[in-house]
């Protein structure tokens, strides 16, 4: 069994925050950019049902976990429930701004229904792969402030808060997988993990692209120029997808663990930023 490398001093801390309850969010809240707005809205549309699925998948294998992992699973569940709550509210504001997210939500249901026809261990493997995706996206989001530089303050705060906690609990699904497959041969474990990640990656890229284009269509923006603008936003500038490629590929390396790269310094930096922002709000 591979060495478990989640930091022994890691504490997963649910931060009960609420965002944007008092203000109406602009239709193009990403600095007036319809492409950036559509991409983040498309991602948010997946979270309420997707994160409920993550909770379901991890909790199915908590039996027999050591006390530290059991406590981390409990904190993971609490964080994910709050993420779902805040993205339900965020998605409601997108609806109020004129977007219909139902086609995107229906696609999530379609994918999850397929996974639920498989054995529960496949659902856990899919959760582990998607948790790696969210963790490396979160890392890049916090690492480079340009990603949210033009976003409205409440929306930016929501995404940064979410990113903090995705980094913090990035090892939970992986450690649960290692616990659940502890009797498997190492190559079998790696083969299943790798195949599921390739499947998840294909579906993630295809579905998020289609979802983003659907929201742009609702803005009356279609055609090759719009596709090119979306490609440039994702892979050019600010280039989120290009910048995570190396971290994505590391998942396939022998001995991989999400905490081989300890990025808690990003959490500390961002928590200080959010605390300063809240202080200025209080004393404004």
Automatic annotation (TrEMBL):
InterPro entries per the UniProt record, alphabetical: Haem_Oase-like_multi-hlx, UCP07580
- A single Gene Ontology molecular function, please? hydrolase activity
Report keywords, A-Z: Hydrolase
Record bears the keyword Metal-binding: no
Listed Pfam families:
Metal_hydrol
Which PANTHER family does the entry mention? Answer: METAL-DEPENDENT HYDROLASE
Q: Know the name of this protein? A: Metal-dependent hydrolase
Native source species = Allosphingosinicella flava
